[in-house]
Amino acid sequence: MTDPTLPNDAVGCLVPHNISEPIRGSGAGPLAGKTLIIKDLYDTAGRKTGNGSPDFYAATEPATQNAATVQNLLDAGADITGIAICDEFFYSLTGANTHYGAPQNVRAPGRMPGGSSSGSAAAVAAEMCDIALGSDTGGSVRIPASFCGLYGLRPTHGRIDLSGGRAMAPSFDTAGWFTNDAGLFKTVGAIALDDRSVAADFDRLLIADDCFAQAEPAVAAALQAVVDAAASVLPTPENVTVAPNGLDTWADAFRVIQASEVKLTNLPFVEEHNADLGPGIKERFAMVAAITEEETAAAQIVREGVRTRLHELVPAGTILCLPTAPVIAPKLDTPPEGLEFFRTNTLALTCISGHSGLPQLTVPAADVEGCPVGLSFIGWAGGDEALLNLAVKLAPFCTR
Questions:
Q1: Is the previous residue joined to 116 through a cis bond, with omega within 30 degrees of 0?
Q2: Has residue 1 got a pLDDT over 60?
């Protein structure tokens, strides 16, 4: 086996404080010979973890051991060849970091890679590595996977060990990964996921009408065409309305609960160190500081209603189909007001899995205006493996 080398970062997806040489895995196992780039959220022994913030990087201490999931992938044979840029304190879906720049999206030139796992997704899209490790709180694996044309998974909440990963909003935080290949994607899942799988035959497919209505017409049409084309490997679809009273209330509750948890995880550092925050991030932290207990309590009631609704709607054996994102990747020069609308509109879709804790797969389903768009499937609690199997079955109908 040849020694891995650090990739040429032609797309600007690696942090300035990148590793100086590859971190070798075990050399044996299902990922032997595969290269891995990890988000600047996971600890690696002997080096600092940056949270997408130069101020945080400067103030923190080197880790004494690898994050649990990083170690699992190394033990399975993967070699780490880079540390990837992420949005500052993981608080965005665009992928643009004021301090480090926006990694280039080679599959949608001139457009955003999506965040906060932007560097991880951009690296896989540019074929700088075989696998990239990201994280997903409010859509940070699913959205960059959609924008960069990749396979991505937000697992059942709690099924991947986050020890040694930096917290954002713990009741929503999950790990996740990207690949270009459905078979490899499934292999990584067998390593990363714990043993709390819930096996069932996938015999019911629900099409989320209100979620498709949330998407731009061209996106919705392209994704529906893929569902139609893949009819031979899918159950006969049934149409449902996921949120009878509207998705916006669900999204707003997610925003409030997320902020209430960021108030405990990252706001203390930001205030104590007077961290230099970029546009959008600064305003979000101001909102975090102002969140009240009353707002949070009201949002938690909404969340419980969402959880009840989704767990009833998606029992074992049922999968819900929806667009991953409502739009193609925004252009890099999109003004702030446009980005805030994008974020709000997108959260209406991504909050469903976040509130419910259910796993969500996104596959690189189609192209619209020359840009990738992802098709998503939400499975039952513990049904992650069924989603990974579905990714393999759908591969012939996808763009890669």
A1: yes
A2: no
Instruction: Return d(Cα 175, Cα 312) in angstroms, integer.
Output: 25
Q: Which two tokens stand for residue 56?
A: 């945080």
Q: Quick one: which of 182, 173, 7 has its CA closest to 84?
A: 7
Q: From CA 173, how far away is CA 188, in angstroms rounded?
A: 19
Task: Say if CB 265 and CB 294 are below 8 A apart.
Answer: no
Q: Give the Cα separation of 239 and 58 in Å (integer).
A: 51
Pairing of strands 151-154, 360-368: antiparallel
User: How far apart (Å, rounded) are the C-alpha atoms in residues 357 and 242?
Assistant: 15
**Where is 125: in which H helix or E strand?**
helix 118-125
User: Distance between CA atoms of 279 and 72, rounded to whole angstroms?
Assistant: 36
The two most distant CA atoms of the chain are separated, in Å, by 59
Domains (ranges, CATH) in the chain?
35-243+302-397 (3.90.1300.10), 249-290 (no CATH)
Looking at per-residue confidence, does 3 or 63 come out higher?
63
Instruction: Answer for the pair 78, 31: CB distance below 8 angstroms, yes or no.
Output: yes
Q: Give whole-number Cα distances, 340 to 57, 330, 346, in Å.
A: 27, 11, 10
pTM of the model: 0.98
Point out the residues that are catalytic.
39, 116, 140
- Give the other-Cβ count within 10 Å of 169's Cβ: 22
Q: DSSP letter string over 307-325?
A: HHHHHHHS-TTEEEEEESS
C-alpha pair distances (Å), 105 with each of 138, 140, 145, 151, 242: 20, 15, 11, 15, 32
Distance, in Å, from the CA atom of 176 to the CA atom of 126, rounded to the nearest integer, reads: 18
d(C-alpha 386, C-alpha 105), whole Å: 29
Give CA–CA dist 354/135, Å, rounded: 12
pLDDT tens by residue, 259-299: 999 999 999 999 999 999 999 999 999 999 999 999 999 99
Number of other residues whose CB lies within 10 A of the CB of residue 383: 28
